[in-house]
Amino acid sequence: MTQRQLTVGTFTPSILIHVARESNAFERAGLDVRESLVASSPAQFQSLERGELDLLFTSPDNVLAYQYLSKNPLGRTIPVRILAAVDRGVGLSLTIGPHLSTVEQVRGNVVGVDVPQSGFAFVAYELLARCGLEPTSYELDALGSTPQRATALVASRCAATVLNAGNEIRARGLGCSTVSEVGVLGPYLGTVIAASPNEDDATNIAHRRFCDIILETAREILAGERLSEVVNAARQLLELDETQAREHYACLSEHPSGLIGDGRVDVNALTTLIDLRRTYMPTPELDLIVDSIDGILIGAAR
After folding, report:
1. Of 110, 86, 94, nearest in space to 12 by CA
2. Considering its fold, how many domains does the chain have in total?
3. Residue 216, helix vs strand vs coil
4. What is the C-alpha to C-alpha distance for residues 128 and 100, in angstroms, rounded to an integer?
5. Tens digits of per-residue pLDDT, 81-138?
6. Is residue 242 part of a domain?
7. Is residue 283 part of a domain?
8. Cβ atoms 39, 241 nearer than 8 A
9. Average per-residue pLDDT for the chain
10. Which DSSP category does 230 fall into?
11. Which domain holds residue 135?
12. Are residues 193 and 271 in the same domain?
């Protein structure tokens, strides 16, 4: 069988992609899946626009921003659609550096973000606000993807940031502390599979096969399976020790912010993202998103 090559842009190495590849699920489906780590959300969407990436593991807030909002970091809209929901944040949490003992010490210091206008940045602003720290009480530094921010936090190049996908566990192991988790904000959607819309049947079939394999792998993990494969992948890809890797497995399989096995997008979770944008970057264009939910969710069941 001829293998259809797909390049997937991710921020943190994907456990789901790794486990699916190791089980030869992609090969059996006629797919040659290659993962490309991206430095930031603007870089990810720029690469999608150029055709360098076929699929994205990204925040749904990025899809909303680049599809509908003119004031996104690239300053232009890019056609993009959600194909499936992957997780609810996977431990997404406000984390402070090893040199801090309380969140109040973030005041007057640097908070690390991907870019100031991104969904994870809005989560950081809101979690800090609930701790009594408004955006005017700290400085921002655009430090890029989650792994890059974790490294910066451990090195005390920022006082706080939001981390997830195993990066929060690694940071805690190196002396950082979790302050609060994204679940306090209400229903939340952390990662989706997204792509540019197209009319090529073969491409759409390949994308659907990829999503089906990722969701089947997620269902197996949610059922308590694939423990050894996930632990090995977490140790290899995320630099976690055995105990930390097992904690990450529990986060994927048991935590409220864990995996989504059916790929369905919770519209209430999208509403949480929109409400965060209304608070920290209001624009009338957000009304277009509310009126266009069906257009965003091409392959993802509601």
Report:
1. 86
2. 2
3. helix
4. 15
5. 999 999 999 999 999 999 999 999 999 999 999 999 999 999 999 999 999 999 999 9
6. yes
7. yes
8. no
9. 95
10. H
11. 93-185
12. yes
